[in-house]
Amino acid sequence: MSAVNRAAIEDWSARIRRGEKRAVARGISWIENRDPRREPLLESLHPHTGNAFLIGVTGAPGAGKSSLVDRLIDGIRREGKTVGVVAVDPTSPFTGGSLLGDRVRMTRHALDKGVFIRSMGSRGNLGGLSRGTREAVRVLDAAGLDVIFVETVGVGQSEIDIMHMVDTVALVLTPGSGDAVQVFKAGIMEAADLFVVNKADQPGTQRLVKDIGELLDLTGRSRSWRPPIVETTVKEGRSIDALWRELLRHRHHLTETGEGERRHRDHLRREVEAIMEEELRSRLQKRMRESRFTADLDRVHGREWTPHEMARNWLDRLSGRERGNGG
Ligand SMILES: Nc1nc2c(ncn2[C@@H]2O[C@H](COP(=O)(O)OP(=O)(O)O)[C@@H](O)[C@H]2O)c(=O)[nH]1
Ligand SMILES: [Mg+2]
């Protein structure tokens, strides 16, 4: 790949900041494809980020996350605000046009200039998925979207990762699914700022609300923010506005208490850590392919050197310090 054309990137960056959908889509594609233009683009966008309200929506497949987001978009648009959605599916190798269900459910908004919806798949690389998601969110943030939803499937590691990149986490549960206990076990409970009991038209709703309440009492999370439980029914549009009000109330809480700032710093720290880890691993793997590494390994195999000695020696080399000063 020839040298990256800075001027062209600045041009795309400016178009993204003006909220041009095509430019936003292009930027996210660079991220997904690890295009050489990705890093300079993110660099150019960075000063323009940090303004959007980032909401994570998590819960089991079929809980109604996409349906809820779709309905929330209506209300947010009526307030004149713009919305981005990143739908993350770790089980899908496909990107862009994937998650047909979400596409179908949200196509109502496809022609709306104030709504941008994008799906992200794993392409077999889960670590890359959370990085890609975070960067995609940053592009949407720079594009000036007021609210950005990050929807994930399931309650695995990728959900935990995603909780570390948003301001507010909404957990969607449904009656009769046995969700509450599972979620409690997986430690997701602690990360949720808000519980949505969706499909409240179905039996078992009150039971689930009660269970969540009891689990909340158990975890003793009643200090400065007790996660509210909102019962919703998407079809009738019931309590969608109440859900939005609770989300805004949490945002207000984050601002008022300084918790939002604390989270932002924590998220950035995690991000820098992840980038350093990734970079170190790739440097390490490059050096392990050197013939010198193989030769040293022979010495360990021949019992001349311990694995520890060799590892330390190579770590020093990795950080640019050669041995031989007798240390
Ligand atoms: N009965 C009922 N069905 C719902 C409700 N909300 C969503 N659904 C249905 O649940 C299915 C899964 O919804 P979806 O939004 O794709 O769930 P996701 O996988 O969590 O994004 C769809 O068939 C929806 O129509 C609800 O409040 N009540
Ligand atoms: Mg969905």
From TrEMBL:
GO MF, one example: kinase activity
InterPro entries (alphabetical): GTPase/Isobutyryl-CoA_mutase (IPR052040), GTPase_ArgK (IPR005129), P-loop_NTPase (IPR027417)
Organism: Desmospora profundinema
Stated name of the protein: LAO/AO transport system kinase
Enzyme superclass (EC): transferase
PANTHER family recorded: LAO_AO TRANSPORT SYSTEM ATPASE (PTHR43087:SF1), LYSINE/ARGININE/ORNITHINE TRANSPORT SYSTEM KINASE (PTHR43087)
CDD domains found in the cross-reference section: MMAA-like (cd03114)
A Pfam short name: MeaB
Family statement: Belongs to the SIMIBI class G3E GTPase family. ArgK/MeaB subfamily.
Record's keyword terms, sorted: Chaperone, GTP-binding, Hydrolase, Kinase, Nucleotide-binding, Transferase
EC code: 2.7.-.-
